[in-house]
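testing teh design pipeline on a random one, pls ignore if ur not involved
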C-alpha cells in the first residue's frame, strides 16, 4: 500500500497485442497482481495513440493495470491520448523536469493541472547537476537543507519528482525535500537564475 508500482511499455510494443503482452510480462516479472500505473514510454509515429489507449483500457478492465499514463508527451500528444480514452482517464505524464530544464512550466504543467493529470518529473536533479550547485546550496543554508533538497522542493508544487537513489543515505537526503516550502522570493530567485 505504501509503494506505487510503475512500469512502462516501449514504443516498439505499442500495437494492441504487443502492449497487452508487454504489460502481462511486466506484471509477471514484478510478481504483482496488478501494476499501479502503466506508461507509454515514448509516443510512436507508427502506431496511433488510440490503439495503445484502447489496449491500456482493456488491461484496466482485466485488472492487469490499475491506471494508465504517458511519458514524454507534449500538450498536443497528451490531448490526443486523453481524447482517445473512452472509459478511463490518462492520469500521468512523466517528463524531464528540473530547475535546469523548466520547459514543462510553459505549457505542459498548466495544461496538466487544468486537466487533472499528474506530472512525474524524471531527471529532477538535472542529471546530477544539483549535487554541486553552489547557488542552490546557498539557498538551502537558509532552511538547513542541501542543494538536492532545494532542487526537489522547487518541483513539488507542480510535480512528483522521481530521483535516483542507490544508497540508504541518498534516500534519507531525498526525503528531506518534503515537509517544508521554499519562500516565494527563493522560488523567484531560482526561476531568474535558471531561465
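output:
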Amino acid at each position: 500500500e505504501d509503494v506505487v508500482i510503475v512500469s512502462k511499455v516501449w514504443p516498439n510494443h505499442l500495437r494492441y497485442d504487443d502492449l497487452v503482452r508487454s504489460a502481462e510480462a511486466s506484471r509477471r516479472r514484478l510478481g504483482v497482481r496488478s501494476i499501479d500505473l502503466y506508461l507509454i514510454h515514448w509516443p510512436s509515429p507508427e502506431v496511433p495513440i488510440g490503439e495503445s489507449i484502447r489496449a491500456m483500457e482493456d488491461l484496466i478492465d482485466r485488472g492487469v493495470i490499475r491506471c494508465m499514463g504517458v511519458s514524454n508527451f507534449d500538450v498536443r500528444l497528451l490531448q490526443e491520448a486523453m481524447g482517445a480514452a473512452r472509459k478511463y482517464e490518462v492520469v500521468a505524464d512523466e517528463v524531464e523536469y528540473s530547475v535546469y530544464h523548466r520547459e514543462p512550466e510553459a505549457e505542459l504543467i498548466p495544461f496538466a493541472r487544468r486537466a487533472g493529470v499528474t506530472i512525474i518529473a524524471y531527471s529532477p536533479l538535472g542529471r546530477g547537476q544539483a549535487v554541486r550547485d553552489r547557488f542552490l546550496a546557498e539557498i538551502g543554508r537558509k532552511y538547513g537543507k542541501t542543494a538536492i533538497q532545494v532542487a526537489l522542493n522547487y518541483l513539488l508544487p507542480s510535480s512528483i519528482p522521481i530521483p535516483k537513489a542507490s544508497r540508504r543515505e541518498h534516500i534519507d537526503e531525498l526525503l528531506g525535500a518534503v515537509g517544508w516550502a521554499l519562500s516565494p522570493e527563493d522560488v523567484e530567485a531560482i526561476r531568474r537564475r535558471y531561465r
